[in-house]
Give the backbone structure.
Amino acid sequence: MLTLTGPTSTALPLPALPAAVLPWAMTHDQAAWDLRTEFDSFEGGRFVAGLARVRELATLLEALGSSLEPSLARAAALEPEADAAALDACFRSLGFGLEASTLLSDLSVYTNCVSSIDGTDAEARQFRGILASLSARLEKSRAALDLLLALASEAFTAAVLEGPEGRPHAFLVGQGRKYRDRLLPLAVENTVTTLSTDGFQAWGTLYDSITGTATCLLRPPPLAGTEGSLPAGERRIGLAEAASLWRDPDPALRQAGYEAQAQTFSLHRESLAAILNSLAGWRLAEYELRSATAPLHFLDPALAQNRMARRTFDAMMAVVDESRELGREALRLQARLMGVPRLACWDILAPCPVAGGKAGAEARNAEYSFAEGLELVRGAYAAIDPAMGDFVLEMRDTRRIEARVLSTKRPGAYCTRFAGSRRAYVFQTYRGSLADVSTLAHELGHAYHGTLLAGLPLPETHYPMTLAETASTFAETALGDYLENQAADPATRLSLAWSDAQDAATFLVNIPARLAFEQRLYGLRAEKPLGAEALGELMRSTWEEYYGDSLRNYDEHFWMSKLHFYKTGVSFYNFPYTFGYLFSLGVYARRQALGAGFHAAYAALLRDTGRMEVEDLAQRHLGVDLSRPDFWRGSVEILRAKVGRFAHLVATAGLTS
Ligand SMILES: [Zn+2]
């Protein structure tokens, strides 16, 4: 039973609690999610029956897929009346396919939720494997149907999409048809998929395995102010832990984290260079196969995945490039507040140095109890619309937020949705810092987005990466403004402005540098493989071009440490972040213009994120043309105002401290 009615505070500033009274005794049980609404356990009837049904459906779908194969050869000539059997097979495949993917998604989400709470849960690990191979089976069984729907005659496709089973798939089928020239014959598609398991995918697995198991030697420097932050002497830590030190308030520890990482990466540089070359090489070879009608550019698949036109990409990146100096200015201001001439590369993720040092960080960590944090988020949401505020309470009351501090919990935060019930759940480790409150607002933003999609057919709810962060970034911005309007204390203000400055540097400098590096890598790799030396030099020169003199050194290991370059599911997983951030700022800016009508327009926009291309979505709901620079310049101006506010606070902090 949920009794999370602890102290709710509307008057800021909130008192900073001393570290000794961390509020866990009070909220530990209350901040736990309850998944029993979805599944009792792995042994429970629902899970067991669900798994059995997916297996049954997979067999059915495999048979249906085979029955469609002969029609593929004459796809363009198919007619709804003459080919009634094929039409019926399409209906049944779509119907059973949706049932299977809904069930499988529910089983996988549940399994993932359980292992997030306890990474050592053996049952969860076992089911992960079982569900992954079922997922591969389902995907394979769909190949013939997908190809047929992309290649079939207009009349046949229209007949499929007019049926009740077909209608919800109209947008996705339309997307498939748009790129039909890129498809290969079924046998070749199947060969590519089969070979990629131990080829392309295996390179990604190898990267995970090297970076997941490699350790590095941390040599904490014996500097003043670091006492107590580490056990005395050196110790071996994982690469992930070393990377997490970049967020430590202690600058010496951040540097020690960087140096520890650097040493280990230099041991593995040749293997990692081989992986990066193979991933890019595989993709380029596959794109060449798909270039029968016109050359397929290496950016095209990423743009298609993001439902975004090249002209939108060009307009956005032109504005981002012309605004680079604003990102650098943010870094210079951060250096001033930190009291150093220039930031080092390991300082770019550092927390706001207002209180400084570990003791300060601990005091800040205890700032907001879970109930207080939740109340802040509720207030910020309600300031947009009362319904949004109520949504936060509903998430709490239906126990769909997991916020406890547990040693077995997976790091990080996420929001997940059950496809069957359409309910969203939020996962995080809430320690009470302002950053944790912001993460809570962010993840609840995803959950709110999910709730708005709940009434739509499932195939219309799969939004691209470019739009995935709209609601979450929006929620973070709303929280920042709410705290600002609540006349937060100077330290909180500075902390909020610090993270705005960090955003400016991330989205205008860091992410564009990642994109430039990856574009150059693909361009060069088309000619020949690049050795570790060349990759390091390419990264260094790219950082130099983007960061210029705003940093005192560059991260030459970035090509090895940034997981995004090694993801196999997506390529160029960088510009969608910049798109998402700037798009969300642009949406937020419509608040003033639309006044009372804003929330309805915002909700309508979110509802269409899974069934429109980004340009159409922006045109319909915001009345803007994303392929023109104006929209993007508007968002950069908002960011410029934020950096200006930070500059003002930095100047004032200098006077009063
Ligand atoms: Zn997110």
